[in-house]
Amino acid sequence: MKVLAIMGSPRSQGNTAFLLDEILSELEKEGIETRKIDIAQASIKPCLGHDNCAQYKKCPQNDDMDAIFKEMSEADGFIVATPVYYYNVTAQLKAFIDRHYFLYKHDVSLEFKAVGVVILAEEQGLDDTLNTLVQYLDSSFKVKADELVVLTGYAAREGDAKTNTELINLARNMGQTLASSLKENF
Questions:
Q1: What Cα–Cα distance (Å) separates residue 160 from each residue in 23, 27, 72, 109?
Q2: Pairing of strands 2-7, 114-121
Q3: What SS3 class is residue 85?
Q4: Above 70 in pLDDT, residue 151?
């Protein structure tokens, strides 16, 4: 079993990354292989919105998305994590989401046995960000909101998550819940 996590924060050592690592650590304790892709470090060009996208055998953008799509197709579980930037997902994550249009136009629908969402905000934007991610997951993978394991919380400053026992416990519980779901559905 393998879980692929997409980390949408431009801060590789920030609050979102910390909590995601806590989740992945719990999965690994259960014997589940994990892989985290920090999309801020990947080469992901924005979608060009080709009207004839369905006619391409391969997306004409030459970047890391083909390799990421391949890893997604080999995963049993999927986690997407983002801080809230200006009331929604980060720009890096939005570019990643938009690139799924290629899969959509080619009737490619990936399936996962467990899916998680992690969202951290300073003050506002949790609901809008969750709505964006639920729409993305439902349209790309046919995942419904009630099938998700969701962690939302607040962390105002870099490093706040490391001292927030409630968030840490929520992250660990999320990892255990995802592990159980994977084992039940495998």
A1: 17, 23, 30, 37
A2: unpaired
A3: strand
A4: yes
Q: How far is CA 40 from CA 45, 130, 156, in A?
A: 11, 20, 21
The pLDDT of residue 129: 98
Predicted local distance difference test score (pLDDT) of residue 125: 97
Cα distances from 119 to residues 4, 42, 46, 131, 160, in angstroms, run: 17, 20, 22, 11, 14
Looking at the predicted structure, is the pLDDT value of residue 25 above 90? Answer: yes
Q: 3-state DSSP call for residue 160?
A: helix
- Burial (Cβ within 10 Å: 0-12, 13-18, ≥19) of residue 101: middle
Structure tokens at 149: 């394991």
What is the rounded distance in angstroms from the CA atom of residue 179 to the CA atom of residue 35? 14
Q: Is the pLDDT of residue 136 over 90?
A: yes
Burial of 45 (0-12, 13-18, 19+ CB in 10 A): middle
Instruction: Tell whether the model's pLDDT for residue 156 goes beyond 80.
Output: yes
Residue type, 59: C
Helix (H) / strand (E) element for 121: namely strand 114-121
Is the pLDDT at 145 greater than 80, yes or no? no
pLDDT of 147 higher than 80: no
Strand partners, 36: 5
Measured over the CA atoms of residue 35, residue 152, residue 83 and residue 115, the dihedral's sign is positive
